[in-house]
Amino acid sequence: MVGLLVVAACSRPLAPAGTNALVAGALATSKGPIAKADACDSIAEAGCDREARCNRIGEGHYGSADSCKADMRSRAKQRIAAAPCSNGVDRAKLDDCISALGSERCDETAFGFDASLACQTLCRP
To answer: How many Å apart are CA 41 and CA 83, to the nearest integer?
Structure first.
């Protein structure tokens, strides 16, 4: 059952590179809990936006925006799937996480979804 939960937590095709619709629009305007898959997409997008801003996509850490999204989404999926989140992902907590990812400096050695304190607890109470 746990394996099924991990696979289903963020199961959805990746959005095309450069697509930031979840972060910029859908999450900000809708009400209620956020599905785990949408949260994973948003976190991956925000993390890769930071990686692009820090010149870590292309010849940097990631070979392409798609490889960045795949890695970030996989890491988000592992973290969110491990949390119970039976009431979904809390919108305000996800917004704080995305904001924290977007404001990280490029010279920080510990960065990203795994290191950000704002991204540690995303479940709705």
So the answer is: 17
User: Considering only 11-15, 97-101, 121-125, which range has the smallest mean pLDDT?
Assistant: 11-15
Query: What region, left, alpha or beta, does residue 58 occupy, with left being phi > 0 and alpha being psi -120 to 50 degrees?
Result: left
Q: How many CA atoms lie within 13 A of 66 on its CB side?
A: 3
Query: With a threshold of 0.85, does the pTM exceed it?
Result: no
Number of Cβ within a 10 Å radius of residue 106: 11
In tens, the pLDDT along 99-108 reads 988 888 888 7
